[in-house]
Amino acid sequence: MPAVGGIGPGTGKEYPGSLTPFVTVTCIVAAMGGLIFGYDIGISGGVTTMTPFLQKFFRKVWEKKEADKSTNQYCQYDSQTLTMFTSSLYLAALLASLVASTVTRKLGRKLSMLLGGLLFFAGALINGFAKAVWMLIVGRLLLGFGVGFANQSVPLYLSEMAPYRYRGALNIGFQLSITVGILIANVLNYFFAKIKGGWGWRLSLGGAMVPALIITVGSLFLPDTPNSMIERGQTEEAREKLKRIRGIDDVDEEFRDLVVASDASKLVEHPWRNLLQRKYRPHLTMAILIPFFQQLTGINVIMFYAPVLFNTIGFGDDASLMSAVITGVVNVAATVVSIYGVDKWGRRFLFLEGGAQMLICQAVVAACIGAKFGVSGNPGDLPKWYAIVVVLFICIYVSGFAWSWGPLGWLVPSEIFPLEIRSAAQSINVSVNMLFTFAVAQVFLTMLCHLKFGLFLFFAFFVVLMSIFIYYFLPETKGIPIEEMNQVWKSHWYWSRFVEDLDYPNGGVEMGKGGQGSKNV
Ligand code: BGC
User: Fold this and answer.
1) pTM for the complete prediction?
2) Which fold has domain 21-224+268-491?
């Protein structure tokens, strides 16, 4: 990697202790928090193509779709009401993540996860038994609150628990469970859509209670992170917990660093206002741009609307749902690759490789769709090889996302914030993510109708932009202890101008040994 990548690993500190069974199990349970988010992403697209569901709740949409005999395939699904159903959840999640910031900081990461599970459970229950549209909406809002709490706390929890050498891999457990949630939802939709009585959608929506129960019960048994315990004054318990987590008695150095970070964090009265300080400019930039770019890869066009999209390009209903299952499998498999590689190859390599891969695929898919559908949206007969090529490139695109922006969009923000702003900054990360998930979900079908195949080029443009951003502005964070992260900014060609030594008189909050640490930088 070039010099713009900042410093590499091996910055001096090496806390002892490795991957214990205790921390592994704990992280697996916590990562289950991703299931509720994933299940919801995967379930809505399929449910909104189920005829009985549309007839019951969105009759006008259904009538319009039935009456529309136009040959312009690009516009057949364009309906604001229906997209509002899908995307309203993300607005609720946005609000909840802001509240969750305070809960996570003052009451602990564990309680936020528990609340997330409970709210999501309530939402799933109401949705499964929905008799009227208002019940659907109340349910969606509760689901959204649940997702907001879980996405705020789980990535932080994982990054704080993990021994730093394995932080990437353990944190990506969250993304893995998102992708598993999406896949399970796709498979269930495929089968539930076939239920004769037309009530399959109830099972799809109510089924969200299962992942909700997993994270609710799981979080009851989870310990809180030592970082959070110290932050809330439980210093001695935190030391014992750290010993247990790391599986050794000699945790002094790491413990001391956590205490120093926590002391600094206590001096901060207004974490939100604090974020605006000059020295946090790099963090704030990342908290906003990383989730923004993650959504502007266009991934949720595939995740939400794969069945609709495949339908549009000429697949039958069944084949469309099946293709969504195929992309779901690719999504899970490619996430496993990033678990393997993230702490070996680094974050920057994955970001840049994934970006290049997505770009090529978007260009090919745009060309394929453009060639057959033109601007009129009327393809005539589509040969089989054509459908295979499109699905293949969509799969390569999904895998590119799944080992880069997918997991790293959650991992990198959760590991770069110093403790004093961690919770607030993570909320910004979640809210920006949700805001643009909402925006993409809301305008995608309209954009497809107007931009036609050019839609894929629109997202391709952003992929170019984000790759340039990563190349020049994101320092490598692989193998750097979380409370020591500030040094990556200090030695970065651009960000160093924002972080002055004066800000860390003792060699850094993170250098718990009265300045010795600065020699390592
Ligand atoms: C993103 C979601 C996306 C999912 C796909 C997550 O990292 O935040 O918006 O649907 O990945 O696997």
Assistant:
1) 0.85
2) Growth Hormone; Chain: A; (1.20.1250)
Residues 6+ apart with CB under 8 A from 447: 455, 458
Q: How far is the CA of 5 from the centre of ligand 1 (A)?
A: 25
- Asked whether 179 lines ligand 1 (CB < 6 A), one says yes
406 CA to middle of ligand 1, Å?
Answer: 6
Q: What is the pLDDT of residues 276-304, one digit of tens each?
A: 999 999 999 999 999 999 999 999 888 87
Q: Is 377 left (phi over 0), alpha (psi -120 to 50) or beta?
A: left
Torsion, CA 151, CA 435, CA 98, CA 410, rounded to 10: 30
Domain assignments of the chain as residue spans, ordered by start: 21-224+268-491
Q: Whose CA is nearest to atom 8 of ligand 1?
A: 406
Compute the Cα dihedral for 97, 100, 101, 102 and give only its sign: positive
299 Cβ inside 6 Å of ligand 1: yes
From the CA of 442, how far away is ligand 1's center (Å)?
16
pLDDT tens figures, 394-422? 999 999 999 999 999 999 998 998 888 88
- Confirm or reject: Cβ of 96 under 6 Å from ligand 1: no
CA-nearest residue, atom 10 of ligand 1: 300
How many Cβ atoms sit within 10 Å of the Cβ of residue 497? Answer: 12
